[in-house]
Amino acid sequence: MPAPKRVVIADDKTPADLAYRLACEGTALLWRGDFQNARQLLQALARRADHKGDKGKRAKAPKPPASAAEAFHLHRQAQSQRARTLAMLLVPFEADYTIPLRRAPDVKLVCNEAYGRGEEPFVSSLRELLGLIGAHEWRKNGVEIAALGERIHPHYGVFSPIRGEYVQLVAEAPLPPRARLAFDIGTGTGVLAALLARRGLARVLATDTDPRALSCARENLLRLDLGAQVELIAADLFPAGRADLIVCNPPWLPGRPSASIESAIYDPDSRMLKGFLAGLAAHLEPGGEGWLILSDLAEHLGLRPREQLLALFEAGGLALVARHDVRPTHPRASDADDPLHAARAAEVTSLWRLVAKA
Known about the structure:
Layout: E1 6-10, H1 16-24, E2 27-31, H2 35-50, H3 68-86, E3 89-93, H4 108-115, E4 122-125, H5 126-141, E5 143-145, E6 150-152, H6 164-172, E7 181-185, H7 191-198, E8 203-208, H8 211-223, E9 230-234, E10 243-248, E11 253-254, E12 266-267, H9 271-279, E13 284-295, H10 297-300, H11 306-315, E14 318-326, H12 341-346, E15 349-356
Parallel strand pairs: 1-2, 2-3, 7-8, 7-10, 8-9, 10-13, 11-12
Antiparallel strand pairs: 3-4, 5-6, 13-15, 14-15
Helix pairs in contact: 1-2, 4-5
């Protein structure tokens, strides 16, 4: 987000209603009081942001969205506005990442993991700092991957493999006969590359364009003692050569990410999906397969029809061998209060097994 154009000083005496009004107007509040009180103020701002439309029992119900796509865009718009408002509460940092506030935690390790070595004093939103702390906990504790029987440790800015159903699809799909070399396109944390190596692929080439992801994957693969079996390559989509198996789990929704972490969810104009399908046939060995792991949430939201996906298969010279489906198990799939509940409840994640047409 751009730096705020106006900043005022706030402290323990600043009323939450005043702080919320200023934040909504785009005025940032640079905190000079007790750190724990700043956290309480942020919670108060969040409550006001989440209930800003409540006007009592007699309030007129908002007009329902005309379509699932409209509901999705309104939801993203509301989430973006909420994020901008909550980002207006700022905390100061010294050059060594010390926070010069009463009862402030030691976040030097947290900030070093996310930002690298500190060079000069700066300010950041408290909401961002809490996100860094959460990312540090993910990295420290890891995510249990049942299909691996191991934990994967995501780094800050690298999407966490918390949706285990797509990993299970890769664990259960039958491998191509005599497959020895695999490509993992957009490896992220390295979870699928590790799984393919554990399934017996002699060599796996895993690609990504994000240096954070490559660093994260390298650390995970070394921890799993798979560093010699999996080679990490900084590349956009495919490495050089051909493989017996090529796996890709691209972002599932066409759209523009509003933060770097959202690049694992939103793919502008389906660029990665289209690039993978357009280049897949040319990188497959004879008899090889490409595995596309993709949710149909975009279809239920009216963002990308099934016909468009099938047309991309045809344009890429690809034929479908089989499709393996699984229903998501994450909490939002059963949350009736979610604005996108209807689409999430109908969502299916699929592993499409594709081959090059003869």
